[in-house]
Write a structure and sequence with these properties.
Length: 272
């Protein structure tokens, strides 16, 4: 009998249920320069919520505040249903390690989506098909090497000298798992943080950088994603300002069929 090897992403975001706390573990396969890839942490938190027996509906929004460095190894997730009504559930999750202070604090809203009037005002950012674009080369951060990036615009050059004047913060690229995996709520969450720091593009160099707060809004539910049946998204990202050590970042993830699946915004720290 053939056995199916679990995808590295599913291993990295695996959770174990406890009485009042859930447990997860960081993955070397999804490690950034000085800590775990924030998108993997966010997806692990969302998995605990999706797997929770009291969960109802599909993710509508997820905010993760990264409060302190997360070390390699195990962590606990204290999952709490704060409020629920007929249409929505509001959740709070605290990530701790070794009984220490909170390393990440998340809030999430789940919703029962019902048929309604629908209109997509945003326009699909067309570009060449995934297959016509060369893959982005591997870099030192292992998390990035788990993805197949195909840049249409704004490819990051980590070897370039500092740009004078500053360059554009905009990029457009296809993102898929390097080992193909069907897009679901968990991978969509991780990919909402898979944009390289905008300051790397603007300055043309690597600088110390880290996400402080990440919010993802979901515009499709699990049934919608299953119907799309895709393994990659077209992602656009931009920034508005870098000031006094902090900068924003905005993004949108589209299906190849032109459907807006998720939008995201974050505030990040930098040292430059």
């Amino acid at each position: 009998m053939l056995t199916r090897t679990p995808h590295l992403f599913d291993d990295a975001t695996r959770v174990t249920a406890g009485d009042s706390r859930w447990q997860g573990r960081t993955s070397d396969d999804y490690w950034a320069f000085v800590g775990p890839f924030g998108g993997a942490t966010a997806a692990t938190i969302l998995r605990a919520l999706i797997d929770h027996p009291e969960r109802s509906g599909d993710p509508l929004s997820l905010t993760v505040n990264f409060c302190a460095p997360i070390a390699q190894g195990a962590f606990d997730l204290d999952v709490r249903l704060v409020r629920a009504n007929r249409s929505t559930q509001h959740w709070c999750v605290e990530l701790t390690q070794g009984g220490a202070e909170v390393g990440a604090l998340a809030t999430a809203v789940f919703a029962e989506r019902r048929p309604s009037w629908s209109h997509q005002a945003a326009k699909f950012p067309k570009g060449p098909p995934f297959e016509q674009i060369r893959p982005f080369p591997r870099i030192k951060a292992s998390w990035a090497n788990q993805y197949d990036f195909r840049f249409v615009e704004g490819e990051t050059d980590f070897r370039a000298a500092q740009k004078q004047p500053p360059g554009s913060a905009f990029s457009k690229c296809w993102i898929g798992d390097r080992m193909p995996r069907k897009i679901d709520m968990l991978s969509l969450t991780a990919m909402s943080d898979a944009f390289f720091g905008r300051i790397f593009l603007v300055r043309g160099e690597l600088v110390p950088f880290g996400t402080v707060s990440l919010t993802t809004y979901f515009h499709a539910d699990a049934a919608d994603l299953a119907a799309e049946d895709i393994s990659r998204v077209l992602a656009v990202a931009d920034a508005n300002i870098f000031h006094k050590s902090y900068g924003d970042q905005t993004g949108a993830l589209w299906s190849p069929n032109g459907r807006l699946l998720a939008t995201t915004t974050q505030i990040a720290y930098f040292k430059a």
